[in-house]
Amino acid sequence: MERLQKVMAHAGIASRRGSEKLIKEGRVQVNGKVVTEMGLNVSHADTIAVDGVPITKEEKLYFILNKPRGVISSADDPKGRKTVVDFFSHVDQRVYPVGRLDYDTTGVLLLTNDGELTNQLTHPKYGIEKTYIAKVEGLIHKSSISKLEKGLEIDGYKTRPAKARIIDIDIKKNKSMVELTIHEGKNHQVKKMLKAVGHPVEKLNRDRYGFLTTEGLQSGEWRELKTFEVNKLKQLVKENS
């Protein structure tokens, strides 16, 4: 379910504010009935018309991008920097990222125009697993791994139990490689967790999102998700609800 004005905006009828104006003016019908109140949620099964003309329902699109460093995870950037949406300029529909990856973080990023699935995947209660590979300063010890797994106090909240393991330790360079799987998606969470145990992050890559990886995709490359992958994502949400 999505707000009526949002569906209208995605269909290219008008901006959200413009769509709200059309609704207030009594020019919008849902299943043959005029709607003038804000906040109505509609589904794909509902028929929406403006001035008696049915609107074309937007085809749902789902993509996976291997996000490069130095790209903003946003639909636009006031500073004019490259955004993940720029990789999809050829797509007629407006797509947007599912959550965010930091400017300097690489790896798995989903983009879609499915607002309902986006809200579910990014809501903490559904706990979709996200796995990161981090190159950190210092030689990490198993005691630090244990702290990461149990949860840490960061910015006034305690992180949920995570999965962590040491991938590699480079004694000469005084660096470590760590794999960390979390269920939340708070701002800079992985970096803050590793810094809290004394190992600031130098490089960070999101290796998996649920069951999805960037296998076969070079940095900056993308592909459309297969139908069974979309269905599997929706199933994950159901299982965790």
Automatic annotation (TrEMBL):
Phylogenetic lineage: Bacteria, Bacillati, Bacillota, Bacilli, Lactobacillales
Gene: rluB
CDD domains: PseudoU_synth_RsuA_like (cd02870), S4 (cd00165)
Domain RNA-binding S4 positions: 2-69
Single GO term (MF): RNA binding
Signal peptide (from-to): none
EC nos: 5.4.99.-
Enzyme class label: isomerase
Entry superkingdom: Bacteria
Protein name, entry field: Pseudouridine synthase
GO cellular component: cytosol
